[in-house]
């Protein structure tokens, strides 16, 4: 991938799975996005933030707060502008229901609202300052929200004695529209959703001690677009110092736009902005005011009309972070190689990341499917070399295509990120391969598919209609321990050795093992063929 559209992709495998990808419904009396004051829940848990007091609930030994505003609603003049602190309140704010998702086209979710810049906190009741894990959801930068059921952090926070924070951020055109008319006072443009993530991290820095967290031990983590966000935050100037470890799950460094120049299959950010203005009829006079007067529904209607980016065969919305010279001063991998984001990093990919897109691309196992897939990737000139490398006649057309798509979009970029982090800074990098397929349920046939690792990190197998075996429960606890130990100490479990180019990585399976031959050495071959752009 580079990064897929939309990136709650497992939910797209079958309409039968859509129910498994939404959050549990709010209680009947809860209005998504509402803020109530002066109501004390039973049992009440009161914490005072620097914006005002909040009241959460004590649930199974955890202090739980949902829907805390970390920024003002990005409406009116605040749309397509950097986030600002919310208006301070004095009466306790009841925070026991998730805030609304940010506007998006995804079906089957609670009502969305631009008043979506909220975060959630799960905090242990044990004494001391706890390490903090900040989770950034995926969804291709166009969909998803922190209240989705499989992101419920109660099990992870309780088992690992962590404070876990999950965040919403602006999506799609509302989060990443770049135009000169929207240039901020610092001269940056386009990175509104990325700035939201940074604002949430700054909220954590200022407030997490009041929730029992240690602001000096903050780990950022995410999967898919969330993992791409983590990679981008490693490189982002305003994010430096706001986190101290990072986990990149099935992400990469490629999906960013240059402000004025196209890069490969990616258009420039300003070209996307101009197309948007034309679609919305804002081409004369005060273009910024015209665009800000549009409703979220009108903006979303324009968004779905934008030509998708298809680089290496994966469709992607061109609503992405921007190398604007302010928040991002260069492409993420280049910035990591220059020493930005020098923190302990774990990074990896699942064995069969690309399995979920094959049916939609016509790769069902018929003779010639692999070659047609190569043509779709725009790599037809390298078909002979790729056929020799992946041997579809021997391993099957579909399996060969899954391996190629996984290598190009996830696995080889993960290795390159690990190598960059390991060789340019002082902190260690840890590379992993997730090889365990879910044991049953509608996704079992897809192998270790995109998103599988989320089930094991948060422990919510029911979110995708899976019943874990005892081995899966053990593996889930092992994954939680690794992420939790990295958050606490800067080093994951002792059996996970630091990565060096050509060196060891951890394969998550039942049992887990240490290996050294990443993807059979195919990444070097793909790089030599010019198929792994920076």
From TrEMBL:
Carboxylesterase type B domain sequence ranges: 46-501
Signal keyword on record: yes
Enzyme Commission numbers on file: 3.1.1.-
Position of the signal peptide: 1-25
Lineage: superkingdom: Bacteria
Gene3D superfamilies from the UniProt entry: alpha/beta hydrolase
Single Gene Ontology MF annotation: hydrolase activity
Keywords associated with the record: Hydrolase, Signal
PANTHER family, per database record: CARBOXYLESTERASE (PTHR11559)
Protein family (similarity comment): Belongs to the type-B carboxylesterase/lipase family.
Protein's recorded name: Carboxylic ester hydrolase
């Amino acid at each position: 991938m580079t990064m897929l559209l939309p990136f709650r992709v497992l939910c797209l495998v079958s309409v039968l799975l859509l129910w498994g990808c939404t959050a549990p419904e709010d209680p009947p009396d809860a209005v998504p996005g509402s803020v109530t004051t002066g109501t004390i829940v039973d049992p009440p848990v009161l914490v005072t933030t620097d914006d005002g007091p909040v009241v959460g609930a004590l649930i199974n030994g955890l202090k739980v707060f949902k829907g805390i505003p970390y920024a003002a609603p990005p409406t009116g003049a605040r749309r397509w502008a950097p986030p600002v602190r919310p208006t301070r309140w004095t009466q306790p704010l009841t925070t026991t229901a998730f805030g609304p998702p940010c506007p998006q086209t995804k079906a089957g979710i609670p009502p969305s609202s631009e008043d979506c810049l909220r975060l959630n906190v799960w905090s242990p009741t044990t004494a001391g300052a706890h390490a903090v894990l900040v989770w950034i959801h995926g969804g291709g930068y166009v969909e998803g929200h922190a209240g989705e059921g499989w992101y419920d952090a109660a099990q992870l926070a309780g088992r690992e004695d962590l404070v876990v924070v999950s965040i919403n951020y602006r999506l799609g055109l509302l989060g990443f529209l770049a135009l000169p008319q929207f240039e901020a006072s610092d001269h940056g443009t386009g990175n509104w959703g990325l700035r939201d993530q940074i604002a949430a991290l700054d909220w954590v820095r200022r407030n997490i001690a009041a929730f029992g967290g240690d602001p000096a031990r903050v780990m950022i983590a995410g999967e898919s677009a969330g993992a791409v966000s983590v990679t981008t935050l490693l490189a982002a100037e305003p994010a430096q110092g706001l986190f101290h470890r990072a986990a990149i799950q099935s992400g990469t460094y490629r999906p960013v736009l240059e402000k004025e120049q196209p890069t490969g299959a990616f258009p420039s950010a300003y070209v996307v902005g101009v197309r948007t203005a034309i679609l919305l009829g804002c081409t004369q006079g005060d273009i910024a005011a015209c665009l800000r007067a549009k409703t979220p529904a009108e903006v979303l209607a324009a968004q779905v009309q934008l030509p998708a980016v298809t680089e290496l065969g994966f469709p992607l919305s061109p609503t992405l972070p921007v190398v604007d010279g302010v928040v991002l001063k260069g492409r993420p991998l280049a910035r990591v190689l220059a020493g930005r984001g020098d923190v302990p990093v774990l990074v990896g990919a699942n064995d069969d990341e690309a399995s979920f897109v094959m049916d939609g691309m016509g790769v069902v196992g018929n003779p010639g499917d692999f070659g047609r897939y190569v043509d779709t990737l725009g790599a037809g000139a390298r078909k002979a070399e790729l056929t020799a490398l992946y041997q579809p006649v021997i391993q099957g057309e579909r399996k060969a295509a899954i391996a190629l798509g996984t290598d190009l979009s996830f696995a080889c970029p993960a290795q390159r990120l690990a190598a960059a982090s390991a060789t340019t800074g002082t902190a260690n990098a840890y590379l992993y391969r997730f090889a365990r397929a879910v044991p049953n349920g509608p996704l079992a046939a897809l192998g270790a598919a995109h998103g599988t690792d989320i089930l094991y990190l948060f422990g919510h197998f029911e979110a995708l209609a899976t019943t874990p075996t005892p081995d899966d429960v053990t593996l889930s606890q092992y994954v939680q321990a690794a992420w939790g130990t990295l958050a606490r100490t800067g080093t994951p479990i002792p059996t996970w050795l630091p990565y060096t180019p050509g060196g060891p990585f951890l394969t998550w399976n039942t049992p887990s093992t240490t290996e050294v031959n990443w993807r059979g050495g195919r990444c070097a071959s793909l790089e030599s063929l010019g198929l792994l752009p920076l």
